[in-house]
Amino acid sequence: MGYRVVDTESVEPEPDRPCECRKLTGPAGLEELAVNRFRAEPGEQVPLAYHYHETQEEAFYVLSGTLAVETPDRTYEVDAGGLLAVDPGSPQRAHNPADADEPVELLAIGAPPTSGDAVAYDPAASDDADTDE
To answer: What are the Cupin type-2 domain coordinates in residue numbering (predicted)?
Structure first.
């Protein structure tokens, strides 16, 4: 058996991110699950790019504020206390809209944990492909 309490504020934010990102997987000693805590000010996006994962399931649990998640079909708005689940292969870009009144804080949970497997997604290229068929 094993138990660990992690003070998420003591985990240093990752450098070179579009918003504050605290990677909690390592400090928690997790091996089968990735957990990140994000805080995005108005106008900041959460991931580095519009993307999808080939094998990872993701869940975004909003702690405060409202998270906007752009997908090819629509933009979801997830309020505090809400959870958005994303299947593998589903493109998404999470962000805090520029006109938001406050920061958004969330936990991003993914399994299996991945290391750099995000596949960039270009909605314009997808639209072009749809019109060619």
So the answer is: 38-109
